[in-house]
């Protein structure tokens, strides 16, 4: 599975590659000349290239959900779940 890391988390692609994942960065693809300036372009690129999108952008996550595209949304709700989970492990 190919993974597309949204701009906000540039660098995660490199960490994922080190772990054996086929990961790409929106920021690096843009630097290489791909036209990925809008959410629509990013989502469409992921769709055309059979990629899972990792994003913090709630609207991008919703767009993926509405269009049955694979995604991981790292919004405040997901981050809160991680915090609560870690707190439970401390107690």
Gist of the model:
With 91 residues, this protein is an alpha/beta fold.
Structure commentary:
The protein has one domain (2-90): Rossmann fold, CATH 3.40.50. Helices cover 52% and strands 18% of the residues. The protein has five helices and four strands, in the order βαβααβαβα. The protein has helices spanning 12-18, 26-31, 39-48, 58-66, 76-90; strands at residues 2-5, 22-25, 51-55, 71-73. The protein has a four-stranded parallel β-sheet with strand order 2-1-3-4. The protein is globular and about 50 Å long.
Keywords:
52% helix; Rossmann fold; alpha/beta; globular
Strand and helix layout:
Layout: E1 2-5, H1 12-18, E2 22-25, H2 26-31, H3 39-48, E3 51-55, H4 58-66, E4 71-73, H5 76-90
Parallel strand pairs: 1-2, 1-3, 3-4
Whole-number mean pLDDT: 94
Query: What is the number of E strands?
Result: 4
How many angstroms separate the termini? 37 Å
Q: Summarize the main sheet.
A: 4 strands, parallel
- Assess the beta-strand content as a share of residues: 15-25%
Neighbour order of strands in the largest sheet: 2-1-3-4
CATH class: Alpha Beta
Number of domains: 1
Query: Which residues form runs of ≥5 with pLDDT under 50?
Result: none
Fold-level CATH name: Rossmann fold
Shape: globular
**Helix coverage percent of residues?**
40-55%
Order of helices and strands: EHEHHEHEH
Structural class computed from helices and strand pairing: alpha/beta
- CATH architecture group name: 3-Layer(aba) Sandwich
* Tally of separate helices: 5
Radius of gyration: 14 Å
């Amino acid at each position: 599975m190919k993974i597309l890391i949204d701009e906000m988390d540039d660098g995660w692609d490199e960490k994922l590659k080190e772990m054996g994942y086929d990961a790409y960065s929106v920021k690096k693809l843009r630097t290489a000349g791909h036209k990925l300036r809008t959410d629509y372009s990013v989502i469409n690129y992921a769709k055309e290239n059979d990629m899972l999108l990792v994003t913090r952008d709630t609207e991008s996550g919703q767009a993926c959900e509405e269009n049955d595209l694979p995604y991981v949304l790292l919004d405040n709700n997901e981050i809160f779940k991680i915090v609560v989970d870690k707190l439970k492990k401390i107690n």
